[in-house]
Amino acid sequence: MIERFQRQMTRLVGCPHDRRYLLAVSGGADSMVMAHLFLLSDYHFAIAHCNFHLRGEESNRDMFFVRHWSEEHGITFYVKEFDTLSEKERTGESVEMTARRLRYQWFEEVGKDYDFVVTAHQADDTAETILLNLTRGTGLKGLTGIPEKSGKLLRPLLSFGAEEILLFAHEHHIDFVTDATNADEQISRNRIRHTVMPALRAINPSLTNTFAHNIATLRQQYGIYKAAIEQIISQAVTQDGDTLRIHREVIEALPYRETVLFEILQPYGFTDAAVRDILKPGQTGRIFHAPELILVADRSDFVVQPITPRKEERVFQDLDSLKSFFDIELQQAHPIDLPCDNRTFLVASDKLKFPVTLRTWRHGDFFYPFGGKGKKKLSDFFIDQKINRLQKEQILLFCIEGDIAWVVGYRSDERYKVTDTEAQYYRITLPQS
């Protein structure tokens, strides 16, 4: 096993003696065998242990056990104690997800001075993970198992089964601790480990090897699949700063549109159920939410961007306070210096009355568009201008005595235009951001 382990390390990292490793060690059989393999191979490593305080004195027992082993062998030891249950209550996550997040956040922090953070996942863990994924629902990626290498994360024991690891521990007199909760079949993974896996091994005694072969095949197939998806994404998606535009005509022409759209949106937190809803007929104009992003089904694109809170209403009591937000000049009405774009609003000096309110749109808003044929609902104006729901939430309205005198950046109101009869007018310009 030592020779196979060393060959595995060389395959994964090149020259393993030239790297520095931080080993995640719980004290169980897998992680203690991993620590011994690193020790026997004379690699440069330190130990990191998480105490989640979920099992009372047993949690402390594990921590002291790993600390003692590290000190006995002269290995640098890092430990982090978490109040996991309080964090779970704060976030609303499951205990398992909370512990996982805390663990990997800390590994990232403490592992900055190391080339790799190494975990003791082994072949049976991969098989259990795949069965769990199948039970909960998964795509092709969920059938490819746990990756051996992902960024700085390294898992060199994935080619070794649990029985082989336990045999090595026995032959080399390697002490380890046993987590009593591993026998609790109320936990889904334990039920798979103690009930499902033995039943499958009764059908196929070489189950671990069969899983390993299947995973190798599926990873190659997944690589082909990802390459095809990336080709479609290059045609269907454009990025503009924080905004992602997914071109509907490309997606909707595909017979497998749901799969492609899910591959695009899943990294942003959208679920498969959300993707199915997005692709239903008649969804144009609807908004869909992910934890930190929002998607609007526009006419031509699915537009994804960060959630931006609506701008707060501001009230200006006088000209000086208004000048804190806009560039304002008082000009003579003859001749009228017409603006070259909609960032500027002209208003007769006697029509600029305070207070002036700056706010976002509300249902029922209307105005009289400059150059138009009369009263128009603001919602209809937005449709004509091809302004989607995400954009209109951010557009400011310049209101005088309750009237929308200027849709800032788009159109002024006919009732507030400057005529030849005016003596003076204000030139109000939205500064460049």
Structure description:
The chain has 433 residues and is of the alpha+beta class. It folds into three domains: 2-216, 3-Layer(aba) Sandwich (Rossmann fold); 241-306, no CATH class; 314-429, Phenylalanyl-trna Synthetase, Chain B, domain 3 (Phenylalanyl-tRNA Synthetase, Chain B, domain 3, 3-Layer(bba) Sandwich). It contains 15 helices and 21 strands. The chain has helices spanning 2-13, 29-40, 57-72, 84-91, 95-110, 123-136, 162-171, 188-203, 207-236, 248-252, 257-265, 272-278, 319-322, 378-384, 389-392; strands at residues 20-24, 44-51, 77-81, 116-118, 149-150, 153-154, 237-240, 243-247, 287-289, 293-297, 301-306, 314-316, 327-332, 344-348, 356-359, 366-367, 376-377, 397-400, 403-407, 411-412, 424-429. Helix 2 (29-40) crosses helix 7, helix 4 packs across helix 5 (95-110) and helix 6 crosses helix 8 (188-203). The protein is elongated, with a radius of gyration of 32 Å. The model has no long low-confidence stretch (mean pLDDT 91).
